[in-house]
Amino acid sequence: MKNILTLIVLVLSFQFAKAQDLETILLASDDASLLSQNYLNPAMEGLMYSMNGGWATTAKVHKKFGFDLTIGANASLVPDEAKTFAFVPSDYTYLSLQNNESEVQTIMSDDDTETVVDVEIDNGDGTYKVVSFNMPGGITEDLPVNAVPAPTVQVGFGLPFKTDIKARFVPTQNYDDVEAKLIGFGLQHDLTQYLGIIDDSPLSVSVLGAFTNMSVVYDMKDEDATDYVEVVNGEAEFKMNTWTVQALASLDFKLLTLYASAGYNSGKTTAKMKGDYILTYDVEDENGNQIGTVNEAISDPINLDFENNGMRATLGARLNLSIFKIFADYTFQNYNTATVGIAFSVR
Fold first, then answer.
1. In this predicted structure, what is the pLDDT of residue 201?
2. Measuring CA to CA, which of 72, 198, 246, 276 is 20 to 30 A from 144?
3. CB 34 within 8 A of CB 61
4. What CA–CA distances, in Å, run from 317 to 163, 253, 314?
């Protein structure tokens, strides 16, 4: 179990390590929030879709006091159109791209090319604060798969009235500069009992509702003294809440289970950059001549919200080897998601 928890933190480290490079975006002044939102959006959306995956591999609930332990991995595939975002100059007050690109890589691009961003802020007295910084490229070459992953460890327990309670729990884990924790709960209730289907039929029908909360905190260290940004007690904080409601059906045979579901996903994430930061700009006159430098101190500069919601449909299969199960499924949604895993189940 400890190794699985470490794997979760390792994956999250890959996803959020680029937050260390995001400190330079603060040089964009009032444009920093929009630029950060566009850059991070596919990772936040993909992670919310991944977190809603893998809750059930059959519509059949446990008998009373039955239980299972499930270890799985969800991977949300980022659509090609989400790997870049359009840079529209009129959307920004102070920014331009040095090479006049029309598109910029998002965090989930497989292109790690950095984009040079020029900043020019009018001081209102004929002088300008100017600086250039490198917008980080994509990170998917560093990930185990070209997708947004979310490993899960889950237990299920059979209650009276043909209902299962499910729980996902990862106590606070620390890996290098990342601290992560997760908790989730679900309820699955059998509907077959109300449909007049005989007990020995392989068909099962149920309904599932589940909620997951995850938080990740990444310490931002001032590792580059030449990037015009000094970091004091900086950190990036991500808090995610996801919900899913699904109707499930399965055909449960001795060696094989075929299952499907249809439902609705919803999720919300907040991303904050906390701490104190000192930004350094060159000062130029109206002719472009440098006449000095200036420092600007800011605190808790970024506070972003990400949301997604929409319909989902899943098709999957599970191999039943006594109490040992192997399963795989595919969910069709805005970010299609593949899930694989193993389970130990006692009915």
1. 84
2. 246
3. no
4. 22, 11, 10
